[in-house]
Amino acid sequence: MGSIEPKKPFEKIIIAGAGPAGLLLALLLSQHNIPSIVLESWDRLDERLRATQYGIPATRVFRKAGLLDDFRAASITSFPSICWRRVSDHQRLTGIDLSVVKDDPDRMTILPLNEIIKIIYRHCIEKGNGLVEIKFNHKVVGAAQDANSAWVDVEAGAEGEVKEQKRYTADYVVGCDGATSTVRKTLFGRDWPGQTFDFRLLVQNVWYDGFEKHGWDGGNYMVDPDYWGLIAKRGKGGLWRVTYGDKLTGLSDEEYLIRRNTAFKKLLPGHPGPGQYKITQTDQFRIHNRCVEKMKVGRILLAADAAHVCNPFGGYGCMTGVLDAGGLADCLIGLYEGKADESILDLYADIRREKFMKFVDMRSMKNMNRIMNTDPDTVLETDPFLQLLKGLEGDDVATKAFLLKHSSIEYDFTQHYRQT
Ligand SMILES: Cc1cc2nc3c(=O)[nH]c(=O)nc-3n(C[C@H](O)[C@H](O)[C@H](O)COP(=O)(O)OP(=O)(O)OC[C@H]3O[C@@H](n4cnc5c(N)ncnc54)[C@H](O)[C@@H]3O)c2cc1C
């Protein structure tokens, strides 16, 4: 007679949002035989111009999920240096040579987010053991719970079609539905502690041979009170990403685009006019640094941008979201496999929120203030971080140690598993 499997502590997870956090969580859970349903409001995966780089802590989660080889194969091959430049004369102030870690398996991952999402999606379908069900055109409009289960209400159907009202029930609901999260609003209303910045961020994919001709670094933080941003090589074959802030408020999207020619002339090497470069895609964003009071209420949890958002300078947003997804997966797996009790989910919520509040919020603000709110002529002397980088120049051993040091935003939840 075969032995009867003990009943598992839960059966299924509902995940709102098929962004990087939602898909990664679903994939990691499937690798431990935990089924999930991912509900995505759009009819497709997100293609907007957002994240492009993910620091070492995120790389480690990508490897654990079995994604890293595919990310590396799709990524640029030459590993860049990053520098800080004054906009007025394009003077390189200081920088850091990332090529010293080019052979380190943990090095930063560089790949536009739309490609990251596509690869995670493909892994969910092909390698998710048939346990990841992804439903497009399924917009979560509310979430609720009782003592034994949690559920979401959904409007299902493509744009222009009559919508079908559906309810999906599971043991837990995880809101990975991004900065405008409906799951978060259901729990806490529209209030969200933190700040929204006055500027508009313009992001574009650009083909321009001047970057290479002028020998610019792979990543260039542009320091200036009026024209500040990040210019970075991001795609194979010479595709660059130009991101800058426009401080004027209240303009229409078209009006911001008209002002772009002037910004590009100031920012790009060689000061080119519009006929000299080709912009293939552009997006505009409002930017916030905000965090919820709680990342868990009963059986409903929040992860990544649904729980906290930050400005993109320094690449903290998605990296932190990936750490949330990886951490929450470890907690749910521990619970499912009987290695932890439900209190591990409270630990997830408290610790991941603390990591954001204590480190991510502050560091991302410093990164942004360094390029937009300092005097470009004196920032090298006044900014401790740039001073530190200046001190590392030419010292490969110290640079490598700096780049690979443990990050305080990581946390290993498996240390709370029961000792057997
Ligand atoms: C210009 C820019 C540059 C950035 N650069 C970097 C970078 O280099 N490195 C970095 O680490 N981070 C960066 N970020 C931040 C990063 O893009 C985000 O942190 C990351 O995308 C968050 O992932 P997520 O899965 O939480 O949310 P999202 O990527 O926003 O995904 C949420 C998903 O949920 C879906 N959804 C929304 N509402 C609902 C609903 N009601 N029902 C069902 N589905 C819903 C959305 O359609 C979407 O597919 C950048 C951001 C910006 C704006």
TrEMBL record:
Molecular function terms from GO: FAD binding; oxidoreductase activity, acting on paired donors, with incorporation or reduction of molecular oxygen, NAD(P)H as one donor, and incorporation of one atom of oxygen
Pfam families attached to this UniProt entry: FAD_binding_3
Cofactor: FAD
Coiled-coil boundaries: none
FAD-binding domain sequence ranges: 13-361
Keywords: FAD, Flavoprotein, Oxidoreductase
Record has Flavoprotein as a keyword: yes
The protein's name in its UniProt record: FAD-binding domain-containing protein
Organism: Cladophialophora chaetospira
